[in-house]
Design a protein that fits this description.
It contains 17 helices and 15 strands. By secondary structure, the chain is of the alpha/beta class.
């Protein structure tokens, strides 16, 4: 319940503190006294968008603070989920609006995002203003009423979880199908590129080896002549280098006894002899192997040209780059080939989720239809109590072509105030007074199911008077036995039924006109209800009537 409200520097309110009672309370005052301003401040602290124009002139900021007792509403999970300090006895919401236009929100002195404040506020109090009567013609509101009465909450939460997975899977499937279609368009190009590179039978070292071979083939005659010359110089019979080294070995061989260096020289000459002998043997073979082959040179040139062309085409500078391109094309083709399989898998999953949705939506629909019959009966009975004996009310169900976020049911509230008049949608047929009565009946009917900590009726009695107003007051008083109810009213029949009576008025000071509020004692309450009955001038008859309404003896 709402325990207290503190307001500073908000519109016409410079300073206001008010404590509220549980049960049924009323708030009255002249038109323009500031009742709507108080509601506006409460709406502000519950998360409504801030407007810097709401700050009083010359004030740096306005502050609105509301204290709630939330001990009966198991909000500890909500507080934990939003990293807020939990105190069931005193939940303090505070909103600060600065003259700069900035605003700050707090829950139990912890800075809190406005979205969290608004979500929490929806769980704490329902402010029913006159414009909310229009909700009665809104199909989402109507469906919410039916769901509250049918107690489909848990089943609907499960359904919505499946529905969200279905939407996510459908989006993924659509994206995959789009990518598959686009890839299919590119498949022929990709496959041609892949096949071309695959047929090239690429190896990383081939280009270097072919370029070296081409260089050798281009200078075959020069190489052959040089090898002949080297072989002749090394291995000539009389003047060859190998012959001369061999003779040197013979010359040094007999000097070891008398010349210490002879052994070292002999070893070095022997090593040179072996190396040059091997070299001569190798050049002798190579000079016979080196041959100029126009056919081989043409093949090498053609192979290199193919490699160069492929590198230029794919904007790479090596065979390794071409191999990387080939592998990338291959991977893309594998992905394309896997699209059909993946699409088939997702389609099966989507079908399974759709079947789950259909089954769950059917279960929800059955509960809704069952609850709809009860709603129809209860609303007709309640409307008859409010002076509309010929009321007829119905709930029409229409099946959606596909499951939606709330199932497969579209519903419409149908209403007729007259016995012989056809049922029509509420928004098309009900008058303002009828809408007010119907909405009060709806709120009273769902209050026990919705578990709202508090509800504020802002002139829900518009368009009613006399006996009907008295019966509306009885309904609100009955509601007050189960929850906190505050009614802002201009009707004495309703004001007289409140357990507590708050009076809103304006007070002129030297500087400005300010809105004030106070709780009335018994004597003040008699005078206020007498004023509501007779106007500004009180009469003994109006005072007596007020005492009678309040069941107060002299």
């Amino acid at each position: 319940m709402l325990k207290s409200l503190s307001i500073r520097n908000f519109v016409l309110i410079d300073r206001l503190n008010i404590e509220f009672e549980d049960g049924f309370s009323v708030m009255t005052g002249e038109t323009g006294a500031g009742k709507s301003i108080i509601l506006g401040a409460l709406a502000l602290v519950l998360g409504q968008r801030a407007d810097s124009k709401s700050i009083q002139a010359n004030a740096e900021k306005c502050i609105v603070e509301a204290v709630f007792d939330i001990s009966a509403y198991q909000l500890d999970v909500f507080f934990a989920a939003n990293d807020l300090e939990y105190d069931a006895r005193n939940c303090i919401l505070r909103r600060e609006l600065l003259s700069s236009g900035k605003s700050r929100a707090f829950v139990n002195d912890t800075p809190t995002p406005l979205s969290v404040i608004k979500s929490l506020g929806d769980r704490l109090i329902d402010i029913h203003s006159q414009h909310q009567n229009l909700l009665l013609g809104d199909t989402h509101f109507q469906l919410n009423v039916v769901d509250i009465m049918s107690q489909t909450g848990t089943l609907l939460d499960t359904y919505k979880g499946v529905y969200n997975r279905y939407l996510s899977l459908s989006a993924k499937l659509t994206d995959l199908a789009g990518r598959a279609a686009k890839s299919k368009e590119e498949e022929e190009y990709l496959r041609f590129q892949f096949d071309e590179l695959k047929e090239a039978q690429l190896t990383e070292e081939e280009q270097t080896e072919l370029e070296q071979e081409l260089e050798t083939l281009s200078h075959a005659e020069e190489i052959k002549l040089a090898l002949y010359k080297i072989t002749a110089l090394l291995n000539g019979d009389e003047q060859g280098a190998i012959r001369m080294i061999k003779d040197s070995l013979s010359a040094i061989g007999g000097l070891e006894a008398c010349f210490p260096k002879a052994k070292e020289f002999a070893e070095r000459l022997q090593a040179a002899y072996v190396d040059l002998n091997d070299l001569a043997a190798e050049t002798a073979v190579l000079k016979e192997d080196i041959e100029f082959s126009p056919e081989r040179m043409e093949w090498v040139n053609n192979r290199l040209n193919r490699l160069y062309t492929l590198q230029q085409k794919h904007h790479v500078s090596s065979v390794a780059g071409l191999i990387a391109c080939r592998d990338a094309f291959g991977e893309q083709l594998q992905i394309i080939d896997s699209f059909d399989e993946e699409i088939a898998l997702l389609t099966r999953q989507q079908t399974g989720l759709y079947q789950q949705l259909t089954v769950q939506a059917e279960q929800i629909g059955k509960l809704r239809k069952k609850a709809a019959r009860i709603i129809e009966q209860q609303l007709v009975q309640r409307m008859m109590q409010l002076g509309m004996p010929h009321t007829r009310f119905g709930i029409a169900f229409t099946a959606k072509p596909r499951p939606g976020a709330d199932g497969t049911d579209d519903i419409c509230f149908l209403f007729s105030a007259n016995r012989n008049e056809a049922l029509k949608p509420v928004a098309q047929t009900a008058s303002g007074g009828e809408i007010s009565r119907l909405m009060l009946c709806v709120k009273a009917m769902i209050a026990g199911f919705a578990a709202l900590p508090a509800i504020i009726f802002d002139e829900i009695d518009t368009g009613t008077s006399g006996e009907i107003a008295d019966k509306m007051a009885n309904i609100m008083q009955e509601l007050g036995g189960r929850m906190q109810v505050i009614a802002i009213t201009h009707l004495p029949q309703i004001a007289a039924k409140g357990r507590a009576h708050y009076f809103v008025y304006k007070k002129d000071t030297d500087e400005r006109t300010c809105t004030r509020i106070r709780r009335l004692d018994e004597a003040e309450r008699i005078r206020e209800i007498a004023r509501m009955l007779s106007g500004a001038s009180l009469t003994e008859a109006s005072l007596a009537n007020a005492r009678e309404l309040l069941n107060v003896t002299r």
